[in-house]
Write a structure and sequence with these properties.
two-stranded parallel sheet, elongated, Arc Repressor Mutant, subunit A, 6 helices, mainly alpha, 110 residues
């Protein structure tokens, strides 16, 4: 970026991300693929402390359970699960549940 690049996409990026990247740069904006964006924003190995409930929720998300299935398993309302999931995504700095799962596995949080 310091040398004038307007964007960066990894070679294993999905076609959709490549198209969005090209369109973004054509509009005069900068674009970083999701993985690079996370790395650029990530502070050096900060300790992330997860509560027992957050670890439990993260395990169920990684295992592929839906919000309703998680709510049933934990005897909570689906709205509570949605809130927990949203807060977990914010806490860990993920953009969506897919990145949350990837981060959880890579960082060995579960």
């Amino acid at each position: 970026m310091e040398n004038g690049a307007s964007g960066y996409i990894l070679k294993n990026a999905l076609a959709e991300e490549v198209i969005v990247g090209i369109e973004t740069v054509m509009e005069g904006e900068t674009f970083l693929c999701d993985e690079i964006d996370i790395l650029m924003k990530k502070k050096p190995k900060q300790m992330i402390w997860l509560t027992t409930r957050e670890k439990e929720l993260l395990r169920l998300i990684v295992d592929g359970y839906t919000n309703q299935e998680i709510a049933d398993k934990l005897f909570l309302s689906i709205e509570t699960i949605k809130t927990y999931r949203k807060n977990l995504i914010l806490k860990l700095g993920a953009k969506n549940s897919m990145l949350l799962v990837k981060m959880a596995i890579e960082e060995k949080w579960i």
